[in-house]
Fold this sequence. Notes:
Elements: H1 5-16, H2 21-31, H3 41-47, H4 49-61, H5 67-92, E1 96-97, E2 100-101, H6 103-107, H7 109-128, H8 135-163, H9 170-190, H10 196-226, H11 236-242, H12 248-256, H13 261-271, H14 278-289, H15 292-313, H16 320-328
Antiparallel strand pairs: 1-2
Helix pairs in contact: 1-5, 3-4, 4-10, 4-16, 5-7, 5-8, 8-9, 9-10, 10-14, 10-15, 12-15
Amino acid sequence: MEIKLNNISKKLFESVAKIEPGLGEMICYQLFDDKDNTITEKNINTYHPEIAIGLKLANILSEESDDIKLEIGFCSLYLFKSGLSIHEEIGAGTPNINNKDTLWWKWGPAQAINAGDCLYSMSRLMILDENNLNDHTKLKLLQKFDLLSNNMFKGKFLELKNSEDYKINLSDVINTNTLREITVFQYIAELFNKTPKKLNLINMFKNIGDLYVLKNHLKGFNRLSDSLNINQTFSQLENEILNKKKIFPISYLFDEYKDSLEHQKKLGTIYMKRMIEFEDMKYLNELFYSSKSSDLYELKIKKLSEKIIDNISKLDNQTSDLKNHLNEIQLL
């Protein structure tokens, strides 16, 4: 049995149908891309890449008995992350994401906060209410989900704490982003039964997460540095960067110049501001690409890419669909 994206959409809509209609309207607005309550490939690739890749992996590895568990695991993650996005958009004061009004901008902060909280409860009920899972499987799945959510909350605490610091420790940034962003890839990997035949591909998922976060941070960093129109709309990550999120390219810079008083003073001055300005982004970008940091960064990306490609090449022909998908989303 193949797990398809429209299966995910259908399952999510069924869960929304159980709640109060007015609140359900807000939840649908956050979850789906159109009035038909569907999720597009573009949405899942952009905002939930771990689920998009997980779907490809499921169609290679899963046995029919695993499909319900995987489908429910994906749905719970989608609900949870959608709720987090609402809260983050409120915190960053973001009125619009990719030409769509954010939920708080449309309905107000109070209703949006409540909708975000509702999505968290729905993510756990998605597991508990599934009649096709036995109690033992539900408990195991909830343990994995609760570990994920706990890690992401810890990661957000550290991210907010670090945003107010004018000095950056690279190891702290690695730890924060592992908890906040890479942990979702680890969660997806943990959904699969670890048989000897599957183990190599499952373990590779962590490398895919590392690579995705590095490349996504670099993409946001470069796009903001090229921005000339302050009225243009930004992605969630780009808004977070302007709100002083310590992304990997920035942390590489701080690490390289940790012993340079001149650079530490300049970097510290930038990160003591309430928000990062576009001129600051241009300076940071120019400094990054004129220093050893960019070479180290590209080398890290190259090594991860080669490792993933090497692991895929050792597996059977079924993995060609996964490799093609990674190429399509420009990960490899």
